[in-house]
Amino acid sequence: MKVHITHLKAPWPSGASVGSVVEFQAEQVPGWAVGKCVPVGDEEEAAHTVAAPSEITVSLSLDSAEVQEAFQSLRKEAVRRIEEAEQSFEIQRQELLAENAGLREQLAEKDQLILELQTKPQGSVGSEIDQQAAAERAALEADAAQAAKGSKGKAKQ
After folding, report:
1. Which of 40, 73, 83, 156 could in theory staple to 44 by disulfide, Cβ–Cβ 3.0 to 4.6 A?
2. Residue in 66, 48, 61 with CA at minimum distance from that of residue 4
3. pTM metric for this prediction
């Protein structure tokens, strides 16, 4: 594939400049050259050539001892972490259950107190208040009556 260089901000071959024709020995333009060149026809003569990238091959058998050892190591670590998380969860669960039981006990006590106050004869609490109010009313009426007698006696004089 042949291209015309439009921008130099790329690792072009040494001596290449804007307008130079470069031939890539690959089927497509490398990522670093995208947007920095435009395709040209095969009739253009290339001043520079960029070799195709070499292939990198990695051969790794899943049956190899190293892979199996790494897998087992990762598996053991994952199982250990899961067990730690389960233990932590169980501890927190027990703490929350204990707290919940305490709160339920407090709620039951409060409910019992409310029930006692609701079932307590209203007359027992109310009668004391009524007695005090009646005594004060009687005292005020007596004071008013005495004041009225006193003001009548003064008016006669």
Report:
1. 40
2. 48
3. 0.35
Task: Give pLDDT tens digits for 35-73.
Answer: 999 999 889 899 999 887 776 666 666 777 888 888 899
- The residue type at 129: I
134 to each of 83, 108, 126, 127, 144, how far by Cα in Å?
A: 74, 38, 12, 10, 15
